[in-house]
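A brief tutorial aside. Many learners find it easier to grasp structure tokens once they have seen a single protein encoded end to end. The record that follows does exactly this for AIM24 family protein. Read the sequence first, then the structure, and try to relate runs of similar tokens to stretches of the chain.
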Amino acid sequence: MNQPLAGFAPAPVTARMENHGNHMAKIAMQTGNDLFARVGSMVAYEGFVQYEPNPPAVRQIAKDWMTGEGAPLMKCTGDGLLYLADYGANVVVINLNGDGISVNATNLLAFDAHLTWGVERVKGLAKFAGQGLWNTKISGQGWVALTSRGKPIVVDCGGGEDETYVDPDALVAWSPNLKVKGKRSFKAQSLIGRGSGEAYQMAFSGQGIVVVQPSEDSTDRLRVRG
């Protein structure tokens, strides 16, 4: 191999799911250890890997996706190495190790198919955003890959009395055990968020983390409807 190109070759596999650079996830596929991934995210694979769009396990919760909190998923099966990406976004790989995470569906790249998952309403926000905010909750022993528009910051809420405030359009994920509430901001509305009118933030407190991207989503996730 040409020496300058050799530095871009994949490293030996050390885990079920890991990063290849900052913008790609590498998954070690094995028969019986299936994966759900965002439709269209496959950029390359080695070995024998098959894809099934809109599998039955996804159709079972399709009724919840009328809320808009749904990412089109495909089931990946087989043996080999699978590489996933999302238009050059940063990729964050997480081993849940029995914990859970609540993810904005637009930031969900892939997760182990055996994990427990579903679409849930975020409590405490309905009065701020009409019917409220919906997120995808994933938990169990396994791996999850998230995307971020730029290098994210992971804030440890620390369990103290101080709350952590996040623009909903920059929110990627958070620990599901955190307490969440909405906050209106009038004086800072020209500084926080992209929309006109009232600005809204999500306030987090308790033991856990919040993942925030340095770029706002293309559509407002928390706004007055009606």
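Self-check: Confidence is low (pLDDT under 50) at residues 65-69, 222-226. If you spotted this yourself, you are ready for the next section.
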